[in-house]
């Protein structure tokens, strides 16, 4: 929905930021000056005792000098209430006495219809609540009591009971003047295809209201009391009001709790969510009768960046976890992922909390595993990799899974983690032998290297990898983008893939990627705000940065583009070579790779070629990948490096 021009300006004029913020904080009367609209309080976004949160009522902005939270009334409501942009505007508009702009007639008609259906559903919720308290609800009350849900909890969750009566809710709502068509459209009753009389959908079941993020009743879920019932749990059908693939049980309260730093937990069903919430884990939700859908994943990520999926530890629970992983892999990105808390076999969250208490549940949440861990488990558990073919099949399966990740940076990090796990599986490290104890047999031809020699050689490899040179190149790239920000979009993918060498470089890289298209002055201000003036001054004070063409000639965009093309290509190749050198250094220490010398030659050859300034010549990388011979001079230079390494171990290698 678009807002007419001037609506937001009028809204900000009518509301007082001090009043909006004042609902969430206690003002520090000593520091605050209400007459000037200059107010101070402990920050509502992080725990603190001092008043570092400042509100300038006249300008309509707030800023925390502790956690650097900043914004206006709309952003404050969004962050504290954990709602979307339009919902925050609706909340503020109601407070200001402003009417939200009218929608088009069709949209308004649709909204009115949904309001009617929601009202019918709310009447049904109240009817079923009353039925729970009658003699017919005695069995349901006993069941809830055995599950640990006392009367106050039943009230909080509006739990009810549908008697085993074919026309209970229909008769009740008709007496209230509700049209039969609305009763059927809401999903409360079923109309036979043969044209017979409608009858109640929910019979002989404990009723759980399903509400949307705004708290409106949109459907019902029913738990059968009869153990022989065809379906243990029954949800309402898809209606104009209820889309089960886009809804979550306990959505609104969980969103609010997650906005107050509670961990968002995704459980399997109503009782698990209720048990979690009653035990203090109030940011708990559940899908509604279906496996988690893509739309529900997006809903979860709007609530919290890394929800924890809490599943039963049996075979079915693990299968469900794997389905979620397959669904999530193409969707994950920086700041949007999942973790998995696998329950002990035979227990769900409700059982675990009853048996061992909330502390046991918290421990499982703290130990929740990342997606890559379960992906690795799925591909390796119960399998034997005792032949090259089986190892190759594992590699193919893992490559296929990782290739589905759209974000190149995350895809690269998954590859690195899988590489580490694969190394551990196929090359298990032995404990260092004790003096006089059993000495593991060396592979044929492997050199005798003591730990000190291995450390020396690994250090030489690191020194030879050109890390210092790469750090200097990074500085030139950062300064060039800050000076020529219009080029960021052109090189964004390559720039994002770089692993920056220092904290300052990583921080500036993040700001540059977050604000593409800014002019140079604005970009510098954002870097100073996020990284500090000292970091920016230090970057541009370096001699090699000052003499770089993009900095010396800031008006020459074409020259800057050529320079960035060359420097990014060199960094990309050099960082790949450096990773190979690090693996090689580890292999020297563990004495496991018979092809070590070849790999060192290949890694350094690629680095030498990259240093020749051939820009984005794809042939350069293809030659490196295919292992073609390098020039005589480069061979001789690397032979000298190997000779130096060999000398440190007495010439054994």
Automatic annotation (TrEMBL):
Residues 262-344 form the Toprim domain. It is an enzyme of class 2 (transferase). A zinc finger (CHC2-type) spans 43-67. Binds 1 zinc ion per monomer. Contains an N-terminal zinc-binding domain, a central core domain that contains the primase activity, and a C-terminal DnaB-binding domain. Keywords: DNA replication, DNA-binding, DNA-directed RNA polymerase, Magnesium, Metal-binding, Nucleotidyltransferase, Primosome, Transcription, Transferase, Zinc, Zinc-finger. CDD domains: TOPRIM_DnaG_primases (cd03364). Its EC number is 2.7.7.101. InterPro entries: DNA_primase_DnaG, DnaG_bac, DNAG_N, DnaG_primase, TOPRIM_DnaG_bac, TOPRIM_dom, Znf_CHC2. Monomer. Interacts with DnaB. SMART domains: TOPRIM, ZnF_CHCC. It catalyses: ssDNA + n NTP = ssDNA/pppN(pN)n-1 hybrid + (n-1) diphosphate. This is DNA primase. Belongs to the DnaG primase family.
